Amino acid sequence: MRAVLDTTFRSLRVRNYRLFAGGQLIKLIGVWMMFTAQDWLVLELSDDSPGALGVVTALQFVPVMLLTLYSGRLADRYDKRKLLIVANAVFAVTAIAFAVLVAAGVVQLWHVFLFALLLGIANAVETPVRQAFVSELVELPLLPNALALSAATFNSARIGGPALAGVLLSVLSTRGVFLIATVLAVAPVFTYLRMNTAELYGIERKDRGEARVLDGLRYVGRRADLLLPICLMAAIGMIGFNFPVTLAALAKINFHAGASSFGLLTTALAVGALGGALAGSGRRTRPGAYRVIGAALAFGVLEFAVGFAPNFVVAMLLLVPTGFFSIYLAQAANHRVQMGVDADYRGRVMALYVLVFLGTTPIGATLAGWWGEHFGVPSSIWMGGLISFVASAAALAWQLRSSGDRLELRMRPHPRIRLVAAARTEPEAETPRSGVRGAGPEAETPRSAARAAGTGRAGRAEATPARGRVEPPAPTREPVARV
């Protein structure tokens, strides 16, 4: 048991990462409490309109569409820790102002819309910077574990936040929930201030002024192994990940449930998501493309099933595996991008990932709200699952065609589908860039790069090295003091 714990939580040995994870956990519990109360407040102020929920969700993510790429440029140019302090301070001040309006009993629907937009601006700056900042908290061998624990932290909060909000909504009403959530949202400001900057791992750049957004886009365009997960998450993020809109409406309109029951649906989704995050915590190597695609196919099937759930209990049970594969997918795609990108471009590439994954939400949320209003909430859920499955199948076809691999159906000893990898001529390895930590294919041998692209045998764990395979040592870095 101790060995398992040491493996699963090994990144927590690093003090700066402990501060980061602790601050995020406290804040995110408050954020999920806030979002749960906000969704319920919108339904109360709009006479149970799914369309109003769609507008609020869209407003939260419109700034992601407009500002995220620029935020990635900031992450590659300036001190990430200082950017995070400012972004979290703005978030906290905005939350305090809105909590005062709710507590005073004068809140109106347009106030909620404005609040969602302002929080979206703060998040548009904070999210890509935070994603890139994780790589500066730990050394390269710990990065997969640190990323997995960050996802686990997020989903632990997603379990506790809505469940706690559901109880408090019935006891204290929305004003009490907002006041408590606001206090919790301040935590990261203090944890970032307490970090030891001399222990941060970064890269030394002679000129931080050359971090152009266009260069980052061109870099991704040259990397097919980055394009596939980014394009796949763009489609699924827009169509499939609209649970903030659909679950509240499903609970209240279709199942006639109260606030606490709505919290149970969100909690069921988050319990599965936490399992998906922990399932990837032991990952030590870059996940292959087929692992990402397989998780996407499973998610599409399960979300489709949720749309046909006949009652509240069945929906809640189906949301657990749906949550598992939603985060296992998002985490595998995130790891594939983070662990394959040159450190000089990490901020801009992660900003692009956040843009396509979260920035498409305004479109998807608006469509889900409109569809639910006209054709029923369940149909908006199963349609999202169907489109997610089709997008995943298209990604599979793309990967098979580009790699030359093929799928083979075998009936003995039992029916199964097996991936047959095409024979390959190994390209000459690229030379790692000096001073760059965690470079993309430059940090891999040709054979490992081919395996990371998803050319290994189906069902084989990526962490299992091939016989006779020689891995280069991870590049070593000394902590770089931040100026």
Average pLDDT reading: 78
Beta fraction of the residues? under 5%
Biggest β-sheet: strands ordered side by side in the sheet:
1-2
Q: Largest sheet at a glance? A: 2 strands, antiparallel
* H/E topology pattern: HHHHHHHHHHHHHHHHEEH
State the distance separating the first and last CA atoms. 42 Å
Report the radius of gyration as a whole number of Å: 22 Å
Quaternary structure of the protein = single chain
Protein name: Putative MFS family arabinose efflux permease
Subcellular location: Cell membrane
Biased composition (Low complexity): 446-455
GO molecular function: transmembrane transporter activity
Explain the overall architecture.
With 483 residues, the chain is mostly helical. Strands 1-2 form a two-stranded antiparallel ribbon. It has 17 helices and two strands. Helix 2 crosses helix 10 (243-254), helix 3 packs antiparallel against helix 10 and helix 6 (143-185) packs across helix 13 (312-338). Strand 1 (406-410) and strand 2 form a beta hairpin. The longest helix has 43 residues, at 143-185. Mean pLDDT is 78; it is low at 426-483. It has a single domain (8-200, 211-409), classed as Up-down Bundle (Growth Hormone, Chain: A).
Keywords:
mainly alpha, two-stranded antiparallel ribbon, 2 strands, 483 residues, transport, transmembrane transporter activity, MFS_trans_sf, Putative MFS family arabinose efflux permease, globular
Provide the fold topology:
Blueprint (H helix, E strand, L loop, with lengths): L1 H7 L6 H31 L4 H28 L2 H25 L4 H29 L5 H43 L1 H7 L19 H9 L2 H16 L3 H12 L4 H21 L9 H18 L5 H27 L7 H13 L2 H15 L1 H27 L2 E5 L5 E5 L25 H10 L28
Antiparallel strand pairs: 1-2
Helix pairs in contact: 2-5, 2-6, 2-7, 2-10, 3-5, 3-10, 3-14, 3-15, 4-5, 4-6, 4-7, 5-14, 6-11, 6-13, 9-12, 9-13, 9-14, 9-16, 10-11, 10-15, 10-16, 11-13, 12-13, 12-16, 15-16
